[in-house]
Write a structure and sequence with these properties.
19% strand, globular, disordered N terminus, 282 residues, four-stranded antiparallel beta sheet, 10 helices, alpha+beta, 11 strands
């Protein structure tokens, strides 16, 4: 009896857990304002998860990427529902299994300036990002706190300090304004963002996006929580919920709706080949 009492008092009960969700305004992943508030695909996932974990206390707070990573590095118990996994982040973040499935980073350029990048494209049309960044006449930006894949990070590192690579804040709309207005020549971002920001800005110029050589056909997004026993408990629960969400979780449709027709077709083809989701029942 005494042993049972001891075990009960030292164990962590699920109802004792408060999950503090940090939600940067990161459309179209997290849409924190405007008429489409709450319709981003990470918003859809988070509602789904909260509905299925009533034993947790969930607190949802507006945030920024700088604040998210600052709190995690301090060891504060927080989670963010949509993160790219990088080696640097793994030092202070516990990641779930796959949650989001998106098309990878592309080079975004004004459609009337695509020809400027011709020398850096291979036979399949993909851009050699390393060679492109070494061209000092073509200007781009690197956003603070944005996650980039290793191929792009390596290319950034190789040209660090060059004046054609401009460091910017984590304002996601800014780079689209810059490329649409011709202030920079190209940016590196996701296809779903291209469609979203083109509509939000009402851009009179058409934007094109080109694949980056060396990247896989898709990118996986993860829930990330502060590294440690608390964070591992949350991401383990995320994995359990996702495992029961079926072959096409509802947030996948939320992502697909954000794409233009060509990207949506490509997305469905890639999803059919590489989806990490399986029907494990409910």
């Amino acid at each position: 009896m005494a042993l049972a009492h001891l075990l009960a008092s030292t164990s962590v009960r699920a109802e004792d857990i408060t999950v503090n969700w940090q939600m940067p305004d990161y459309p179209p992943v997290i849409i924190a304002s405007g008429p489409l508030k709450g319709t981003g695909y990470a918003d859809v996932f988070l509602r789904y998860f909260i509905e299925r974990t009533p034993d947790f206390k969930h607190v949802v707070e507006p945030s920024s990427m700088s604040r998210v990573f600052g709190l995690m590095k301090q060891g504060q118990p927080v989670c963010e529902p949509s993160l790219l996994k990088t080696a640097e982040r793994e030092a202070y973040v516990d990641f779930s299994g796959p949650v989001e499935f998106v098309l990878p980073h592309h080079i975004v350029v004004r459609a009337d300036r695509v020809a400027r990048l011709a020398a850096y494209r291979n036979a399949a049309g993909a851009v050699d990002i390393g060679r492109l960044l070494r061209d000092p006449s073509l200007v781009t930006v690197r956003q603070e706190k944005r996650g980039y894949p290793p191929v792009v990070l390596d290319a950034f590192a190789a040209v660090q300090g060059q004046p054609n690579l401009i460091q910017t804040s984590d304002d996601d709309q800014g780079p689209f304004r810059q490329v649409a207005n011709g202030w920079v020549d190209y940016i590196i971002t996701y296809p779903d963002e291209v469609n979203w920001f083109a509509r939000q800005l009402g851009a009179s110029v058409r934007l094109a996006y080109l694949p980056i050589a060396g990247l896989p056909e898709y990118t996986i997004g993860y829930v990330g929580c502060t590294k440690g026993p608390w964070g591992r408990k949350i991401v383990e629960r995320v994995n359990q919920v996702v495992a029961k969400a079926g072959k096409r979780p509802p947030w996948i449709d939320a992502e697909a709706r954000l794409l233009d027709a060509d990207a949506a077709k490509r997305y469905e083809e890639v999803f059919a080949r590489h989806s990490p989701f399986r029907d494990q029942g409910r």
